[in-house]
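Re: beginner question about structure tokens

> Can someone show what the tokenized structure looks like for a real chain? I only ever see the sequence side.

Sure, here's an example I had lying around. Input first:
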Amino acid sequence: MTNIYILSLGQLIKSDQQKSIKAFASILQDQLDYSALYSYMSVYFYLKMDQCLNKVVDRHNMGYLDSGQFETELSNFLGIEKTPQFKDAWNAECEITPETLGNIVNLVYSLDKTSYQLVVTSATNPMHYTYVMNRINAELNKHDLPNFDKNPNIHLAISFELYETSHSTLTSLAISRNDLDLEGNKFISFDENIRANNVVYNHATFTSLDIKHLQGCLAESEDLV
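And the corresponding structure tokens:
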């Protein structure tokens, strides 16, 4: 029996949308000569309106807009010209600190030394995903570890690839697509939100442990190998 840990990419990489709002506000200031406060409030309310109207961000997360189309539509919606700073502004909310990268390196290293596996879901968009994976993989490669998204022990289910943003459904898809045996494996989830309508529900143990505790579990298992 193999332990299979279920978590979301958002539990590994934290996000802070305020950083992207401030970055886009800076672009508005430069292009339209708005005040700092007016620029910030404009971007903030534009993004709130987008949740109800154009749903540009949602369509990007669901895979209905590629990165180029998303950049064009969001730029038009914000009333700014497309700029080389767009990607930097959009990716600013992804908080990838040295500590975060170190935690992921330790996690993958421990995973590589045990028979355990991960199911990682992500309700994200192509631009954020590419940025995050490039940063993670560059750090892993420094330690001669395989790319996160190519690791045979990590099963990814990404919203824009599967046209689905529910972590519960993404988890089920990851399990079915990778032929992970529900009866023959032990599933341990770090996300209470996947309980509802999930094929894993009756098979998984749910825990509130965080990523550092997971590293500890894997490290202990590594010592036993």
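Each token stands for a local structural state, so reading them left to right follows the chain. The chain has two domains: 2-14+96-224, 17-92.
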